[in-house]
Structure formats: structure tokens, C-alpha cells
Design a protein that fits this description.
Layout (H helix, E strand, L loop, with lengths): L1 H21 L3 H10 L1 H30 L3 H14 L7 H5 L10 H23 L9 H17 L4 E2 L2 E2 L6 H21 L5 H17 L9 H12 L4 H35 L1 H6 L1
Antiparallel strand pairs: 1-2
Helix pairs in contact: 1-10, 3-4, 3-8, 3-11, 4-11, 6-8, 6-9, 8-9, 9-10, 10-11
Length: 281
């Protein structure tokens, strides 16, 4: 029964993606891809760097609080990136914990992953929602939300029953990842030659947060693009612009994730060829 539900949800996500693809002017899209290769490569690199930052923060935390070697934690993080395309969104976080060294701390680490995802969701939401508060000076808004982040940072001292908020200490480091991701998206929209690139970047960031809520759809495929088109309509953005750029960004995110696949293979080979590191893992 569970597999049938997953298959139905996956089919719906594919249909949503097809619905967006139908609206794409591919001639317009290809022309944009040809005219801005440096911006596109830079966009892919920043999106990749954003995810890489999360992996470094994760591995750094495990080393600091659980004495888990980087050689153990980081390759597992790399393996979790392509796993997010598997329906259910549960496989990806579980891939991070696939080591005998995590045997007695799995539940605690899973809670840390939940906190990490909450921070990423909240930061994308709060940055993206600025599209509804453009009457406020952005610098004032930025300072205000960082005050909120600081309050959440202070929550790292507390715990509720078995739920530990210690991972909240990373909120400002994760903000660096969020800003790198937003910068990558912005470059993609600049490459797409959109007249209001910052506004549509924040709109996409907002839909990125909303798509994180839909747990069953792998990597938000279809749902994110459809949300972006529909909310874009409310802000008077043309369907040609939003549908084409959403597919364009999906390609950028996929290319970024492919880099992680190659990085995982390279790191495995490097560890296997180094006897000292192999013992550590």
C-alpha cells in the first residue's frame, strides 16, 4: 500500500513537471543558454558550493560533538545527495547515518538533520517572503531576520525531553549556504536576462521553501516548478519566463548534484588508495 502511494505521488510530481514543460518556449531557453555560459557555470558552482557548505558543517559538527572522523561522515553526506531523488525524502537523510560508528547515536543525529532542514526551510522562507515586504528597506529587513536567527541560536542551549537543539549553533554558518544558493539562483536569472532578477530570485527562494514541505515528492520535482509558475502569475510574471526559467534552474540543480556524484567516486578512490585514511573509515 505504501509503495502504491509513493508511486502515485511520484506520478503526480512528473505530471506537474510535464505541465510546466509544456509551457516552455525551448527556442527562447536554448538562446539564453548559449549567450551566458560563464554566468551559468558560475550559477552551478555557487549552488554546488551551497550544498558543499552544508556537508562541511555537518561533518564539522560530528567531529566536534561525537568525535566522528571527517573521512567517515563526509563520504556518507556525498552519497545522500543523489538519494534525495528517491521518492519519500527519507532515504537521503538515512544515507548519512549508514555507518556502524553511528549505531548508538542514530536517533540523536537524525534529530540534528531535522533541525538542519528546519533552518534551511526557515531561512529560504524568510528571505523569500521579502517579496511581500518590499516596502521595507532590505538592509533593515536583513538585520531584523538576523536578530531572529540570533534568538534561534540562543535556543541551542536548551532541550525538550530527548530533543536537543544544539545544531541551532550552526544557524549563521547555514545562512552562508543559503546566501550562496540565492546568489547562484540570481546569476541564473541574470543569465536568463529577466528585467527584475532579484525579485524573481526571492520568488523562487520562497517556492523553494514551500516545496520542502511536500515530503513525498523527490527533490520537489514538478511541485516546485508548478508553485513557481502559479505564484509568478500572481506577481505578473509571464508564463514563458517562469516556466522556462524554472526548468533552466532545475537543470542547474541537477548538474550541481551530478558534481557530488563524481566527488563521491573520487573520494572513495582516494580513501581506498590511502591506507592511513582507510583505517580511519
Amino acid at each position: 500500500m505504501r509503495n502504491k502511494i509513493k508511486n502515485v505521488v511520484y506520478l503526480v510530481s512528473v505530471l506537474l513537471l510535464v505541465y510546466v514543460v509544456i509551457k516552455v518556449d525551448f527556442f527562447y531557453l536554448i538562446q539564453k543558454l548559449k549567450t551566458s555560459p560563464i554566468l551559468i557555470i558560475s550559477s552551478v558552482f555557487l549552488v554546488f558550493l551551497s550544498q558543499l557548505t552544508i556537508g562541511i558543517i555537518w561533518s564539522r559538527t560530528l567531529k566536534k560533538y561525537f568525535n566522528i572522523s571527517f573521512i567517515v561522515s563526509f563520504p556518507l553526506f556525498l552519497a545522500s545527495i543523489p538519494a534525495k531523488y528517491i521518492p519519500g525524502k527519507v532515504i537521503s537523510p538515512m544515507m548519512r547515518l549508514e555507518s556502524p560508528k553511528y549505531k548508538n547515536i542514530k536517533s540523536e543525529l537524525f534529530l540534528n538533520i531535522l533541525v538542519e532542514n528546519f533552518i534551511i526551510f526557515f531561512q529560504n522562507l524568510i528571505f523569500g517572503v521579502y517579496i511581500y515586504f518590499e516596502f521595507i528597506n532590505f538592509f533593515v529587513y536583513f538585520v531584523t531576520i538576523n536578530v531572529i536567527f540570533f534568538i534561534l541560536f540562543l535556543c541551542s542551549r536548551y532541550s525538550f525531553k530527548k530533543f536537543n537543539f544544539a545544531y541551532m549553533k550552526n544557524i549563521f554558518l547555514i545562512e552562508i549556504s543559503t546566501l550562496l544558493n540565492i546568489s547562484g539562483i540570481l546569476l541564473a536569472f541574470i543569465a536568463f536576462d529577466i528585467s527584475s532578477p532579484m525579485k524573481i530570485t526571492l520568488l523562487y527562494t520562497f517556492t523553494l521553501a514551500l516545496s520542502m514541505i511536500i515530503f513525498l515528492i523527490p527533490a520537489g520535482i514538478g511541485a516546485r516548478e508548478n508553485l513557481f509558475v502559479e505564484i509568478g502569475n500572481a506577481f505578473k510574471f509571464s508564463n514563458i519566463i517562469t516556466s522556462g526559467s524554472s526548468i533552466f534552474l532545475r537543470i542547474i540543480f541537477i548538474f550541481s548534484d551530478i558534481i557530488f556524484v563524481f566527488a563521491q567516486v573520487f573520494l572513495k578512490f582516494f580513501i581506498a588508495s590511502n591506507k592511513f585514511l582507510s583505517k580511519d573509515s
